[in-house]
Amino acid sequence: QVQLVESGGGLVQAGGSLRLSCAASERTFRTYTMGWFRQAPGKEREFVAAVSGRGGSAAHADSVKGRFTISRDNAKNTVYLQMNSLKPEDTAVYYCAAGLVMGVPTNSRQFTSWGQGTQVTVSS
């Protein structure tokens, strides 16, 4: 199991930006595909973005394309989610996840380690 710690959540007005960070404990961090998921109250957890181990491949949910960008710094064992043009419907708890998988899956079952989550609230 990889230990994951998210940070960077908070309260922001619509149209604003936030950058989430997720620090991993694993020395072999670069072998893990990393993902971001979110869960709003009363809704199921949904895929946001994923990036392959070396950062060569990335995927973003249609709802965030053009606004959110996932990236990683393997030297720092950290993955980021830059969120721009935030909307009230982006309000959710955001979770970082890690998985020893190929490519950039969007299914949460492909990820075996999860962080505790960080709250993002976007006011209108």
Q: How would you describe this protein?
A:
The protein has 124 residues and is an all-beta fold. Helices cover 0% and strands 48% of the residues. It has no helices and eleven strands. The chain has strands spanning 4-7, 10-13, 18-24, 33-39, 46-51, 58-60, 68-73, 78-83, 92-99, 113-114, 118-123. The strands form two sheets. Strands 2, 4, 5, 6, 9, 10 and 11 form a seven-stranded mixed sheet that branches. The chain has a four-stranded antiparallel sheet with strand order 1-3-8-7, with no helix packed on it. β7 (68-73) and β8 (78-83) form a beta hairpin. The radius of gyration is 13 Å and the shape is globular. The mean pLDDT is 96.
Features:
124 residues, 4-stranded antiparallel beta sheet, single chain, globular, 48% strand
One letter per element, helices H and strands E, the order comes to EEEEEEEEEEE
Counting DSSP H or I runs of 4 or more residues, the number of helices is 0
Sheet bearing the most strands, described? 7 strands, mixed
Proportion of residues in β-strands: over 45%
Structural class: mainly beta
Task: Give the topology, please.
Layout: E1 4-7, E2 10-13, E3 18-24, E4 33-39, E5 46-51, E6 58-60, E7 68-73, E8 78-83, E9 92-99, E10 113-114, E11 118-123
Parallel strand pairs: 2-11
Antiparallel strand pairs: 1-3, 3-8, 4-5, 4-9, 5-6, 7-8, 9-10, 9-11
